[in-house]
TrEMBL record, chain A:
Stated name of the protein: Unannotated protein
Major localization listed first in the record, in broad terms: membrane
Keyword terms, alphabetized: ATP-binding, Cell membrane, Membrane, Nucleotide-binding, Transport
Pfam families recorded: ABC_tran, oligo_HPY
Subcellular location: Cell membrane
Species assigned in the record: freshwater metagenome
CDD domains xrefs: ABC_NikE_OppD_transporters
Automatic annotation (TrEMBL), chain B:
Transmembrane segments: 103-124, 136-158, 204-223, 258-284, 304-330
Database matches in InterPro entries: BPD_transp_1_N, MetI-like, MetI-like_sf
Molecular-function GO terms, alphabetical: dipeptide transmembrane transporter activity
Keywords recorded for this protein, A-Z: Cell membrane, Membrane, Transmembrane, Transmembrane helix, Transport
Topology in the lipid bilayer: Multi-pass membrane protein
UniProt cross-references to Pfam families, sorted A to Z: BPD_transp_1 (PF00528), BPD_transp_1_N (PF19300)
Compartment list: Cell membrane
Location, primary (coarse class): membrane
Residue ranges occupied by any ABC transmembrane type-1 domain in the UniProt entry: 97-323
Protein name per the record: Unannotated protein
Organism: freshwater metagenome
Keyword Cell membrane: yes
One GO CC term on file: plasma membrane
UniProt xrefs under SUPFAM superfamilies: MetI-like
Length: 331, 337
């Protein structure tokens, strides 16, 4: 499924800096990303690559961080927006599902109460009965058995998968246009992971949702994303349609990530991994931040940080690849 | 739940028995002579009177004998007769408990309410002006000695400004209301005497403030700390990400969790105030258990001392039980068994 039309969410040169005792940590360093209705975009990267932080910054949920650049939902600028503006967008236009359903729900409030609070935040006219009916409806739609009873349950009485379904039900309860899912399956059993992903995709199709999937799991990406943005050290190093990315990865980092995936057509006595560690955002190396771990790195990589360049259907930020390919326009 | 309660109740008599034994021992080991109170200083030189008094109060018996008869009476609910008031201790306590309870309840209600509000404000405006003001206010409350704060307040609001009445439960020229509950604020209303009601409320303001201020200190600091803990929880971030108002995030989501530890502290404070309002009651001539306790220990009034201590012990055990039950209601993850 490919979506066309105006992007519904548009990130431009988004930058996030945290002040740490070790100096400013530049967690996100200029991210451009468009998301359209009905498409799913995966943001992939290792821990600390800035994928979650850029999404939290999108909703203005970061405290003690300097955020610059632009995030536009439609015509509304969200970076530096007032609390009221942000609040009217959060949950109503752009909703978010988080990684750990165990801690994402309040332990002392019932499921129904928490869902009601979310709906009431944006639909204050709903009465108690309507809220309850709607909540049961939502739980039913997310295939939660005995929804009319589960609604009075407390989070600890539900399994991890059920809790994540409840989280998703909360997230879609105000009919948002964008759903950001931050590692929605990481904390779940493998068997449940597939069900949750299926559910998210079904919702995307039914509601024409724009789905932003934050993950470090390329397996999840292959089955669910239309486009992929690979992040490294706070920047997008490759943007590509999902098929193109898997068939011919542009950036050496993407290739390295793909090599880490176990495959049926290869012998795997040892699971391969990328040597070295991601750089510290408070102490980034000069040049391309991936250069110290990159098998293709040349001297130029250690002095100049490359920008994204269009190569075929992909945008790649790599000097070596750009030099070897028929380079298109810089993007 | 029922079984849990039954088990807790069943243990209580044994705990009280232990408390009574320890207090019995400690009070007898205290240097001093209760006979001074019983017969008066002058008669101490008269061996006949002393011997008669000793026999009358059972002080001529050996310690084990005294202990045995004390325990026998205790089982029957008899705490003995006070040396100084010459009334059964049970009767004395029953007379004085309502005064203390009334003062304590108002102090606690006020202190907990103000404490929670201050704690929430301080947490929401962490390290801002209002947080510093609340910290200062709490610090004063928990560090000012009650006798000093009490005298100061009396001096300012009674002696200088004349806005509030002086010590005592009501105007000394007035009559106490007929005893129904023993709470003057309630009894005065029951007999429809609004003047008396107002008078008793005015008399409560200063001592309840002194007593409640310390509670404000404890509760506001605790609420602030546990709210800040909750603010870093995932579910708070989720609530914000879903577009909930900050007021809802704090009051409905975070506060519910943050108040759990407060339950224990409030229960503990209540029991503490019941017996610990000694200084406040003394400064304000409050005819409660605290001033009774002061008098009892000053005169080595053994039965009264033991009576007050057992009352305190019972209060601690009961409030502890109540706080555990309240906890189970407030936190669905806890099932008492």
């Amino acid at each position: 499924m490919t979506a066309t039309g105006e992007p519904i969410l548009r990130l431009r040169d988004l930058r996030v800096t945290f002040q740490t005792p070790a100096g400013p940590a530049r967690a996100v360093r200029g991210v451009d990303l468009d998301v359209r209705a009905g498409e799913s975009v995966a943001v992939v990267g290792e821990s600390g690559s800035g994928k979650s932080v850029s999404m939290l910054a999108t909703l203005g949920l970061l405290h003690n961080a300097e955020v610059s650049g632009s995030v536009k939902w439609g015509d509304t600028e969200l970076v530096g927006a007032s609390t009221d503006t942000l609040r009217s967008v959060r949950g109503r236009r752009i909703a978010m599902v988080f990684q750990d359903p165990m801690t994402s729900l309040n332990p002392v409030l019932t499921i129904g109460k928490q869902m009601s609070l979310v709906m009431k935040a944006h639909q204050p006219n709903l009465g108690k009965k309507e809220l309850r009916t709607k909540a049961v409806d939502l739980l039913n739609r997310l295939a939660i058995p005995q929804a009319d009873r589960r609604i009075d349950a407390y989070p600890h009485e539900l399994s991890g998968g059920m809790r994540q379904r409840v989280m998703i039900a909360m997230a879609i309860s105000n009919d948002p246009e964008v759903l950001i899912a931050d590692e929605p399956t990481t904390a779940l059993d493998v068997t449940v992971q597939a069900q949750i992903m299926e559910l998210l995709l079904k919702l995307r199709n039914e509601h024409n949702l724009a789905l932003v999937l934050i993950t470090h799991d390329l397996g999840v990406v292959a089955g669910s994303a239309d486009r992929v943005a690979v992040m490294y050290a706070g920047r997008i190093v490759e943007r590509a349609p999902v098929l193109g990315l898997f068939a011919s990865p542009g950036h050496p980092y993407t290739s390295a990530l793909l090599d880490c995936l176990p495959r049926l057509d290869r012998r795997h006595d040892v699971v391969s991994s990328i040597g070295g560690t991601p750089p510290n955002p408070a102490d980034l190396p000069e040049g391309c931040p991936f250069a110290p771990r990159c098998p293709k790195a040349i001297d130029a990589c250690r002095s100049d940080e490359p920008n994204l360049v269009r190569i075929g259907t992909s945008d790649v930020a790599c000097s070596v690849v750009a030099a070897g390919a028929a380079v298109g326009e810089p993007v | 739940m029922k079984r849990y309660l039954a088990r807790r109740m069943a243990v209580m008599p044994f705990l009280l028995f232990g408390i009574a034994s320890i207090v019995f021992l400690v009070s007898r080991m205290t240097p001093g002579d209760p006979l001074v109170t019983i017969v008066g200083e002058r008669n101490l030189n008269n061996p006949e009177i002393v011997a008669a008094a000793k026999a009358q109060w059972g002080l001529d018996q050996s310690m084990p004998q005294q202990y045995a008869s004390f325990m026998k009476n205790l089982v029957k609910g008899n705490l003995g007769t006070s040396f100084s008031t010459r009334q059964p201790v049970m009767h004395d306590l029953w007379e004085r408990l309502p005064a203390t309870l009334e003062l304590t309840i108002y102090a606690l209600l006020g202190g907990v309410t103000v404490g929670i509000v201050l704690g929430v404000l301080a947490a929401r405006h962490r390290n801002k002006f209002i947080d510093h003001v609340s910290r200062f206010f709490a610090l004063i409350g928990s560090s000012l000695p009650a006798f000093w704060a009490g005298l100061l307040l009396l001096y300012v609001f009674y002696a200088r400004l004349g806005w509030l009445p002086g010590p005592g439960r009501i105007d000394p020229r007035g009559l106490a209301p007929n005893k129904v509950t023993g709470f003057y604020t309630v009894d005065s209303l029951l007999q429809g005497d609004f003047g008396l009601f107002k008078d008793s409320v005015m008399h409560l303001i200063l001592p309840a403030t002194v007593l409640g201020w310390g509670v404000v200190g404890i509760v506001s600091r605790l609420v602030r700390a546990s709210l800040l803990d909750e603010f870093s929880m995932d579910y708070v971030r989720v609530a914000r990400a879903m577009g909930l108002r900050e007021r809802t995030v704090v009051n409905t989501h975070a506060l519910r969790n943050a108040l759990l530890p407060t339950i224990t502290i409030v229960a503990f404070t209540f029991a503490f105030l019941l017996t610990g309002a000694v200084l406040t009651e003394t400064v304000f001539s409050w005819p409660g258990v605290g001033s009774y306790a002061v008098n009892a220990s000053r005169t080595l009034d053994y039965p009264a001392i033991i009576g007050v201590t057992l009352l305190g012990g019972t209060a601690f055990l009961l409030t502890n039980l109540i706080s555990d039950i309240a906890y189970a209601f407030a936190d669905p993850r806890i099932r008492l068994s």
